[in-house]
Every structure is written in structure tokens, then in C-alpha cells.
């Protein structure tokens, strides 16, 4: 009986959050270990399905850098990076699109549907969703987001589907661009006026001391971000994520979260429990 009561109490604990987030748009950047571990893949898909069925509107934007590198190596092509960005020639762009829009996107869609959802895979080129322009000549076909056209996302969402988006942009003369998934997700969150913007990462959140797991910073205000970068608290691969969050918050997104995607059901732990996990960024 105690176990049954505990289960009921868990549901009751989630109730106020379900009420608060009902009908709200959540943009979720899916990446890291949660995309590579089979058990975590399934728990992520289950989380997305549950959020949809309790009335929320999850939008998934995914990356896939390690898989792109892996496929390139198998094809005998080396990867070159400048300031963390993959130099992308025409052949690399074909591989990027094949891996992101084809392999990874379809795997995520299949998993969500396997667990009872109704997901649809999209590329940023569909419906000219992600308009892009070249970021820098030295990077080749690496682009930056110029505009988001959210009509296709809204249409699918309103019809009860879960959009799953690969960050490939399209520019002038139908030129396709490799777009950073973090900045793509932020731009989509702004365009959809998302209630929450969530990053799944391979860290517990923002740590004041990288060597001390107990130094998690539970809440950060947007005006603190620059100082955290200057002092080195935020560094490496976390910088583009926190900068994407900053831009989204300045542009109107209410709250962002950086959570540990290595934890099973990380989304539910953050969104539907009193304790929560990770770091939240607020305006």
C-alpha cells in the first residue's frame, strides 16, 4: 500500500506543473549522451510522448555532430574545425544533410512513434523554415540563422503532431547550410514564443567549480551570463549554449533550462517535480 500511495503522491506532485504548462510550447534541444545511449533514447522519447499527452506542446531540435564525424571517417573524409565549427564543403554538406535530416531525424521520429507519439521529421529547409546565410568564407557552407518561418511547425503542432527538426538551413539560390543546432533551437524558441527552452547536455548544469558536482548553480539571471563567461565558470562547449539561451531570453523566452541528459527521464524530473534538476536561466 505504501508503494501505491507513493505513486499517487508523485502524480499529485506533478499536477500543478501540468496545469501551469498546459498548452504551452516547449522547445527542447536534444543532444549529447541522451542521443547515443539506447536506454536514454527510449526514456527521452517516453518523456516527449508524456508531455504531449498531458497537454504540452514539445518541439524537438536535434544535433548530431559526433555521428557526422563518424560517418565522414567511414567515408575516408577528415573533419576540420575552426573555433568549434565544422568546415563544410559541398561533399561535407551532403553528408551533414544525410546524417541529420535522414538518419538521426528519422531515428528520433521512429522512437517517439514507437512509444505512442505522433512525430513528424522536418529539415530546416522544409517550408523554408530556417532561412540562412553564410557565416564566414573560411567555413564554407556553415550558416547562421537569418529568419525562422514557423508556419509549418505551427501547422503540425496544431494538428497534434510532434515536430522533430534537423538544423539544416536554406539560403539564396536554394543553397543549403550547416547550422549550429544550439543557435537554431534558440531562434526557433523565439519564433514560437516558447514558454520554456530546454537543453539536454552531458553536464549536471552550470557548475561554479567544474571539479565539484555539488557546486551546481540552480538559477542564473541573464545579466550574470557575461561575467560567468569572463571568469571562466562557463567555458568550452557550454559557451554557445549559454549564449543561445541569452539571446532567446532577451528576445522574450520566459525561462531556459540546462539539464543533464545522462539522467533517465531528465525532462520529467526537471519539469514535473518540486526538486527539479540542472540550472535554470531567467530574465
CATH superfamily: Acetylglutamate kinase-like
Which series of helices and strands comes N to C? HEHEHEEHEEEHEEEHEEHHEHE
Total number of helical segments?
Answer: 9
Alpha carbon gap, first and last residue: 44 Å
Q: Would you tell me the structural class of the helices and strands?
A: alpha/beta
Which fold does the CATH topology refer to? Carbamate kinase
Radius of gyration: 19 Å
Helix content: 40-55%
Identify the CATH class: Alpha Beta
Number of domains: 1
Task: Indicate the mean pLDDT.
Answer: 91
Which overall shape is indicated by the principal axes computed on the Cα atoms?
globular
Would you identify the CATH architecture? 3-Layer(aba) Sandwich
Strand content: 15-25%
The major sheet is characterized as:
8 strands, mixed
The total strand number stands at 14
Outline the low-pLDDT stretches.
none
What's the arrangement of strands in the largest beta sheet? 5-8-2-1-11-13-14-12
Structure, explained:
With 283 residues, this protein is an alpha/beta fold. It is built from 9 helices and 14 strands. It has helices spanning 2-21, 38-53, 65-74, 90-114, 151-158, 181-191, 225-230, 238-250, 266-272; strands at 25-30, 57-62, 81-82, 85-86, 119-123, 130-134, 142-148, 162-166, 168-170, 176-179, 196-201, 219-221, 255-260, 279-282. α3 crosses α4 and α6 (181-191) packs parallel to α8 (238-250). It catalyses: N-acetyl-L-glutamate + ATP = N-acetyl-L-glutamyl 5-phosphate + ADP.
